[in-house]
Hints:
Blueprint: E1 3-7, H1 12-23, E2 27-34, H2 48-63, E3 67-71, H3 73-89, H4 96-115, E4 120-122, E5 127-133, E6 139-145, H5 162-166, E7 168-169, H6 177-186, H7 208-213, E8 221-225, H8 243-251, E9 262-267, E10 290-296, E11 301-306, E12 314-321, E13 325-327, E14 339-345, E15 353-360, E16 363-373, E17 380-385, E18 388-394
Parallel strand pairs: 1-2, 1-4, 2-3, 4-7, 8-11
Antiparallel strand pairs: 5-6, 6-18, 8-9, 10-11, 12-16, 13-18, 14-15, 14-17, 15-16, 17-18
Amino acid sequence: MKKVVVGLSGGVDSSVAAYLLKEQGYEVIGLFMKNWHDDSVTISDECPWLEDSNDAMIVADKLGIPFQTVDLSTQYKERIVDYMFNEYERGRTPNPDVLCNREIKFDVFMKIALQLGADYVATGHYCRKGTMVNEDGSETYQLLGGKDGNKDQSYFLCQLSQEQLAKTLFPIGELLKPKVREIAAENELITADKKDSQGLCFIGKVRLPDFLQQKLKPKKGVIVEVPSTVSQYNDNGSEFSTKAEELAYYAKKPVYDITDGKIVGNHQGAHYFTKGQRKGLDVGGTKEPLFVIETDVDDNVIYTGQGKSHPGLYRRTLFVTDEELHWVRPDLAIKNDESLQVMARIRYRQELQKATLYKIEGGIYVDFEEKQSAITEGQFVAWYIDEELVGSGVIS
């Protein structure tokens, strides 16, 4: 009998994943990850992990499977929280959920599970795993989108490797969310009607500005409103001698100067803000809401523009360095001077967009057919062929 360790989070999805595996005849063990207990940084007045671990224990008891809690807070602080602070300090916006999957659930947690003699690790993610048998008998694994288009979580797993996928199961990937809740209710699982968790992976509710202010000190600066007539790009058919030259031009991060607009307010630190952000600016009197179009952490200036359609919010091309480039399917990786047509997204739940990948020495350009709003350094871009996520990278 194959043994599976399920990451029981105290939510309905992982509860049903454990139930389904047991029904399929696996020997199932429930493991709850405790990812936080640093009192020097308060995450929330509430304590969701206590309630969640309790719910996970009750579910395990109901299903008749062994259960234990594993404390990964040291690794979580080193690999996720410290990284987050560092990225924000540099004026980038990290995605802790993608990192948590790569660094914690499918690395630290997976190693613990394998030490317990598990053949597989399972989670309650809405995605699917495909297996292709190669001519030499070896297997190649596919990361496929979940059947529930509203809940597809493949994006959060965009940094997984073939080695990690080999040892992973996604029991609810074929199901729609209402069906998952129905199965939980039918089997009287305490999590059947529990709300989906919002917030950092396995930590719970976090007010990011409060969280950041505990490590990144406030630093007063100015908010500049840039008129929509100020453009960073000469779009009048600039002459480019090569495709790479054109892509480099459109991928470059816009650089604004205080003289490009007018000072309309003050802020407490450019490192607390991210591109596309509207809340927290506290500037009134504009016809349309102000959006952050760029932050300058060196000079501590936030550049804003009126309305969602401000040209400063839009770019068509982004770049990923070789160091930050990852292929879930290494066999599909393109070489220098090669290109590949894909569908891509730059954030969770975004509709997939048509794009072309261009590989050059040092990295890869992702060139979208249509300009994208708020391409943000530090976030992940993921690309798909049909319903399969084949690669990803951190936006430079």
